[in-house]
Design a protein that fits this description.
mainly alpha
Length: 496
């Protein structure tokens, strides 16, 4: 079931209404059943995989709790590492089988071919389960939290299963931590009008991002990236910038709908985006982009690898490892690995050049948070992230090379002159709506950097609030892109 579908417009109010009407002792079971129904609308049999991952990590938590009772510290630690290893091994084996097996076999066949061995890879027809990377990482994070003693093992299986499968954030995050979401599920919730109103407003903004912006600019992006041969460099540059906004509005829109839906039910999910295109550096970008994943990798991979505690060279190597793994997490393809590697390289170069850049700003009397630095750093960071996103969106490395070659060797700025702007899936009207909607997005991010506009709106008089609510609603209804025969477009991160 998609957020931007008619079934969800029936499902969500019904689930929420029943949730607040039934006795508190039944709410966990009700939400658990609703979450599994939500997931099974894609493929019922793959709910068994989620249940398997849930069962493994649930019993891992209990076994880790029991291991704490072993008096001998060496034996205790050995037993705890055994349960963590089995939990990670089994869950990652499931993830790799469904997401990476074909990719691994194809690359193995190519390597053997280079060695002069002709081997045919077996045909594997496995459909990637929606959201498997998200719920697997959330469950594994719980295992580590129990191992470290940051979270107590959850004895109630139904409550833990809801933690893994909570439907607003099930298929595309945010990747929640047990110390936050699991604890909230242990406390009963009461309906709160202002909280529900704020949640619905956030959902509305998410729908605006998805339906008005992301699905509209996708028409231009798909036209160029799905037919890279012969594309002028100027159209490739525009498509790359538009994809940068598309993926932000698509994934950020999903996150806002998820956070808002949970907020209506009294559950607070972590923010996943914090105006990433106002970042002053790539490091700052990753503090603002897909925050739940970047902090997951920081806490469960970067720090265990040694972080920055073992010297600068080791810290830089750890950074590269994390970003290469992050790229592979996003997809079983070399384009994703290269995207992650580019961000790792950006970070390494940024850290190595930090002292001379700081000295240069000091010599030129440029303040760290001054407007002059922002006017240079923000566009530069945006350009670097957009270039990396070209690899993220390209259908293959060959297509990426073709697109980059066009930007370097075949610019053809005249291709966008006059009616040329409207030859890439957007007519004059849709192109105009896209430009205005992007301007609204940028203005909203700039204003929210200064002040939380949602809270500001809540303090305004009732007529002004309702004008804003209705304006947002009718903008979505009138200018949203709903697909042929109202065939809603899936969110990009459902593929990960």
């Amino acid at each position: 079931m998609l957020f931007n579908s008619f079934p969800f417009l029936i499902f969500f109010p019904l689930v929420t209404l029943v949730y607040f009407l039934i006795p508190e002792r039944l709410r966990v079971v009700w939400l658990l059943g609703a979450s599994y129904y939500f997931y099974m609308c894609w493929n019922p049999k793959y709910a068994l995989l989620m249940l398997l991952s849930t069962t493994i990590t649930y019993f891992s938590g209990l076994l880790l709790r029991d291991a704490e009772r072993i008096p001998d510290p060496v034996a205790r630690q050995r037993r705890k590492k055994l349960w963590v290893g089995l939990s990670f091994g089994s869950n990652l084996a499931i993830l790799c089988t469904f997401k990476y097996l074909s990719f691994l076999l194809d690359n193995l066949v190519r390597l053997l071919g280079l060695a002069g061995l002709s081997v045919t890879a077996p045909a594997i027809d496995l459909l990637l389960p929606v959201g498997i990377s998200f719920y697997t990482f959330q469950a594994l994070g719980y295992t580590v939290d129990v191992y470290r003693g940051d979270t107590r093992a959850e004895p109630n299986f139904f409550r833990y299963a809801l933690f893994v499968s909570f439907f607003p954030q099930l298929v595309a995050g945010p990747i929640e931590r047990s110390g936050s979401l699991l604890k909230q599920l242990q406390r009963p919730r009461k309906f709160h009008y202002r909280r529900a109103r704020a949640g619905l407003l956030r959902m509305g903004w998410g729908f605006f991002q998805k339906l008005v912006i992301a699905d509209r600019v996708a028409l231009w992006v798909d036209t160029v990236f799905n037919d890279p041969a012969g594309q002028p460099g100027s159209t490739v540059a525009v498509a790359t910038v538009l994809f940068t906004f598309q993926i932000y509005c698509d994934f950020g829109g999903y996150s806002n709908i998820a956070i808002g839906a949970a907020q209506v039910m009294g559950i607070r999910l972590m923010d996943n985006f914090h105006r990433p295109f106002l970042a002053l550096s790539i490091q700052d970008f990753w503090r603002r982009w897909h925050i739940s994943l970047s902090t997951w990798f920081r806490d469960y991979l970067y720090i265990p690898l040694g972080g920055n505690r073992k010297g600068e060279a080791r810290a830089l190597a750890n950074l590269m490892i994390v970003f290469l793994v992050s790229g592979l997490w996003h997809g079983a393809g070399w384009t994703f690995v290269l995207w992650g590697g580019l961000h790792g390289l950006y970070q390494v170069v940024g850290k190595l050049t930090r002292p001379p850049r700081k000295a240069l700003r000091s010599a030129l009397h440029i303040q760290e948070e001054g407007i002059l630095r922002k006017l240079v750093a923000v566009p530069l960071t945006f350009c670097l992230t957009s270039f990396a996103f070209l690899f993220f969106r390209a259908n293959s490395l060959g297509d990426a090379v073709t697109l980059i070659r066009a930007m370097v060797l075949d610019w053809q700025g005249s291709a966008l002159a006059g009616e040329g702007l409207y030859q890439f899936g957007l007519d004059r009207g849709d192109f105009t709506v896209a430009v205005i909607a992007l301007a609204v997005l940028i203005l909203a991010d700039l204003l929210n950097e200064w002040r939380d506009m949602g809270k500001w709106l809540e303090k305004q008089v009732l007529p002004l609030r309702w004008v804003a609510y209705l304006l947002l609603l009718f903008t979505i209804l009138i200018f949203g892109i709903y697909g042929p025969n109202y065939d809603a477009a899936a969110f990009i991160y459902f593929a990960f």
